[in-house]
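Re-running the complex after MR caught last week's input typo. The corrected sequence lines follow. Everything else is unchanged.
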Amino acid sequence: ETGVTQSPTHLIKTRGQQVTLRCSSQSGHNTVSWYQQALGQGPQFIFQYYREEENGRGNFPPRFSGLQFPNYSSELNVNALELDDSALYLCASSGGQPTDTQYFGPGTRLTVL
Amino acid sequence: QKEVEQDPGPLSVPEGAIVSLNCTYSNSAFQYFMWYRQYSRKGPELLMYTYSSGNKEDGRFTAQVDKSSKYISLFIRDSQPSDSATYLCAMSESGAQKLVFGQGTRLTINP
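Corrected-run output:
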């Protein structure tokens, strides 16, 4: 069974640029959630996708957007990058049932200069 | 006030000690409670998962949930240096939905 994978591992961008982060969900999982983890903080929920539809969103501006594909992989897009967007971006997948829990990937570390 | 409060530590204990980690929360709708372990620069790894109140034991780890007090705990027995990590509590109204995390407690087990 393949776990959750994310790419790239890390990247550096400058303020105002756009970035796309990718996530492959664990085999058999149809739900993907994205979290932002600032240094020294717990992860914060960005949004969740269930069967290609957005299924809940946290307190993040519209410049954070996402997609889920028919194979349940997902992308997180961030436009007009700001310095405060520097963080570890985590993807988690689950089976989508209320009793399911979420399994996390290793994360993508984004640095905005 | 944050929905979930967790003492960030750091917490440093000798090898073999019993470790107690705690979180409090304010949202009475939370039903699912989790503990994740996160090593430096890695993703969180699920340790314990509990539904509603009660205790759950898995090897050296015991999770307790007291919904009446809005308080959850994780106990680690016979702590090992390999247990050194950041421990995150997380909770949700529905297990598959949005997780709300505490800040994380940084734990060091000294040989």
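None of the earlier attempt is carried over here. The longest strand of chain A covers residues 87-94. Chain A is about 0% helix and 50% strand.
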